[in-house]
Amino acid sequence: MEQSFENREGKIWFNGEMIEWKKANVHVLNHGLHYASSVFEGERAYNGKIFKSKEHTERLFNAAKTMDMKMPFTVEEILEAKNSTLKENGFSNAYVRPVVWRGSEMMAVSAQTTKINVAIAAWAWPSYFDPEQKMKGIKLDIAKWKRPDPKTAPVHVKAAGLYMICTLSKHDAEAKGYSDALMLDWRGQVAEATGANIFFKMPDGNLHTPKPDCFLDGITRRTVIALAKELGVNTIERSIMPEEMEKAEECFLTGTAAEVTPVQEIGGIYKFNPGDLSNKLIECYTELVNK
User: Fold this and answer.
1) What CATH class does 131-289 carry?
2) What residues pair up with 94 in beta bridges, in sequence order?
3) CB within 8 A of 271, min separation 6: which ones?
4) Predicted pLDDT at 137
5) Beta-carbon count within 10 A of 269 CB
6) pLDDT tens-digit profile of 116-145?
7) Residue 211 among the catalytic residues
8) Active-site residue identified among 158, 170, 247, 291
9) Which CATH class, in words, describes the domain spanning 11-123?
10) Would the pTM count as exceeding 0.90?
11) Other CB atoms closer than 10 Å to residue 120's CB: what's the count?
12) Nearest-CA neighbor of 254 among 228, 222, 221, 280?
C-alpha cells in the first residue's frame, strides 16, 4: 500500500516557515475543506529546476484573485519558497504542489475575514501513468460527467472544487480497467482528460486540440504546441465532436503530471496508433524539461 501523505518524513513550507511534514495540519472546520475555497498548482522539478516555475506561480496568483483571495506573499517569495522546499527535502526530480486556501476563522458561505493560507510540498513522483503502459498508449473511458459552462464556474483556474467530477470520472474509468477518462463539455464536445489536455493528429497532418474555452489552458499544452511548431507541425484549436476522433491517426495527453502520454483507445470505440509524432514530441519535451 502506498504511504499515506499525512505520514511522511520531510519538510513543508507553511505560511512562510519550513515545518515538519507531519505537523503541516489544518482544522477540520477550514473554509477550503467545506466550501472548496482553494486553488493549487501542479509542477515538476527536473534536475533540481522547476519547469516553468514563474508561469505556474503567476497562474496561482491569478487563480487566487479569481477566487477573491488576496495572496499574503509575493510572486518572488513563492518562487523562492518552492526552491527552498526542494532543497530542504533533498529532491532533484520531484512533483511540487503549492496550495492556497481559506482558513477556519469563518464557517459560512461568506468568508471575507478568513486567513489566506499558503503551503508548498514536494515529493517523488516518477510517472503519472504506468511507465510500460504509457509507451504503448493508455486507454481512456468516456466520462459521464461534463466540463461545465464557463458561466457556471471559474473554469479557467485550478480551483479545487472543479476537480470533484474529475475524481469521480477517474474512479469510474479505473474500475473498468481504463487508465483515465475523456471528458466532454456541456455541449457534448471533446474537452480534456481528468487532469490533462488532449491532442489528435488528423489526416491533414496537423494537430487538432479542443479550444480551451471551458477548461484549463495547460502550461504543458502550450509548451507542446510550441514544440510541434518547431517540428513544422501546426496546431488547430477548435471545437471537436466525439465522432471526429474516428478519423484521428494519433492521440496523446499533455500535462505536468502526464507530460506527453500517447493514447491507444478511447471508450472502446476509437483506436489510435502511438506513432512518430507522439514519440518525437515525447523526445522533444523530455529534452526541454531537462535543460
Assistant:
1) alpha beta
2) 45
3) 264, 265
4) 92
5) 11
6) 999 999 999 876 666 666 678 999 999 999
7) no
8) 158
9) alpha beta
10) yes
11) 23
12) 221
With b meaning 16 or more CB within 10 Å and e meaning fewer, what string describes 87-116? eebebebbbbbbbbbbbbebeeeebeebeb
For 16-22, the CB contacts below 8 A with 24+ separation are 16/73, 16/77, 16/81, 18/84, 18/85, 18/88, 21/121
Domain map of the chain by residue range?
11-123, 131-289
Per the CB < 8 A criterion, the answer to whether 182 and 267 are in contact is yes
Tens of pLDDT, residues 201-228: 999 999 999 999 999 999 999 999 999 9
What's the pLDDT score for residue 41?
98
User: Would you say residue 1 has pLDDT above 60?
Assistant: no
Q: Please, which residues have CB within 8 angstroms of residue 103's CB and are 6 or more apart in sequence?
A: 26, 27, 30, 31, 32, 114, 115, 116, 117
Q: Which residue has the cell 505560511?
A: 15
Please tell me the distance from the alpha carbon of residue 176 to that of residue 108, in angstroms, as a whole number: 38
The mean pLDDT of 76-92, rounded to a whole number, is 97
